[in-house]
């Protein structure tokens, strides 16, 4: 019998893009509800849930979030020249939203089931091309990954998540890649859509 993880409550932050486990997120915070979110997370040492925004906007009325998202943990914050708060967060585990509610201040909170991290799985030889493509993408688009240890490029989950965030996928495709539970299936689907990005 499969046992479900206990639900935990956390603030949710719907965004027009997908955060993957291990990914890096930079945000500028100006709305009071999200300033409260940052204060809560830094005070309690907890994360917040990032979900793809299915409908609505970042500012104003609460947006409709996707059911599957990623926990973001704040790693750094600073004040920009214009006085706005900037934060850097890192993607942790994925989760599924079981229930959500909107607080009086407009902040969305959810009761979520946290998914276990994907087990490490070596990248099969038939996906070696994806490793090479990722190295080139990192070199040009994601300099913060240049110092990643070579062993990371042998982990199917890490390679798939990095490709899903760096390739020019649309938001729905990124969400699909986030929701897949098999790292090898993710690599296979990424390989199959590569021809779309090749120059004629």
Going by helix content, strand content and strand pairing, the class is: alpha+beta
* CA gyration radius, whole angstroms: 18 Å
Number of helices: 5
> What is the 3D form?
globular
Oligomeric state of this protein? single chain
Strand order of the largest sheet: 1-3-4-5-6
Main features:
200 residues, alpha+beta, 5-stranded mixed barrel, 29% helix, globular
Short description:
With 200 residues, the chain is of the alpha+beta class. It has helices at 32-44, 128-141, 156-166, 171-179, 183-193, and strands spanning 7-15, 24-29, 48-55, 64-79, 85-102, 108-114.
Descriptive overview:
This is LON peptidase substrate-binding domain-containing protein. InterPro entries: Lon_prtase_N (IPR003111), Lon_prtase_N_sf (IPR046336), PUA-like_sf (IPR015947). It comes from Rhodanobacter umsongensis. Residues 7-198 form the Lon N-terminal domain. There is one protein chain. With 200 residues, the chain is an alpha+beta fold. Helix content is 29%, strand content 32%. The protein has 5 helices and 6 strands, in the order ββαββββαααα. The protein has helices at residues 32-44, 128-141, 156-166, 171-179, 183-193; strands spanning 7-15, 24-29, 48-55, 64-79, 85-102, 108-114. Strands 1-3-4-5-6 form a 5-stranded mixed β-barrel. Helix 3 (156-166) runs antiparallel to helix 4 (171-179). The relative contact order is 0.18.
């Amino acid at each position: 019998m499969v046992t479900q993880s206990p639900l935990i409550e956390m603030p949710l932050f719907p965004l027009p893009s997908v955060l993957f486990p291990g990914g890096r997120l930079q945000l500028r915070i100006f709305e009071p509800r999200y300033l409260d979110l940052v204060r809560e997370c830094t005070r309690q040492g907890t994360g917040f849930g990032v979900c793809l925004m299915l409908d609505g906007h970042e500012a104003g009325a609460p947006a409709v979030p996707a059911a599957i998202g990623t926990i973001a943990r704040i790693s750094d914050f600073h004040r920009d020249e214009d006085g706005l708060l900037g934060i850097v967060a890192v993607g942790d585990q994925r989760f599924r939203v079981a229930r959500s509610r909107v607080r009086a201040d407009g902040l969305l909170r959810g009761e979520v089931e946290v998914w276990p991290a994907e087990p490490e799985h070596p990248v099969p030889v038939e996906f070696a091309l994806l490793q090479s493509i990722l190295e080139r993408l990192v070199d040009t688009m994601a300099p913060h990954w240049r110092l990643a240890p070579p062993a990371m490029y042998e982990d199917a989950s890490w390679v798939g998540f990095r490709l899903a965030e760096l390739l020019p996928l649309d938001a729905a495709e990124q969400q699909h890649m986030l929701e897949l539970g098999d790292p090898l299936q993710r690599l296979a689907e990424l390989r199959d859509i590569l021809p779309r990005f090749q120059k004629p």
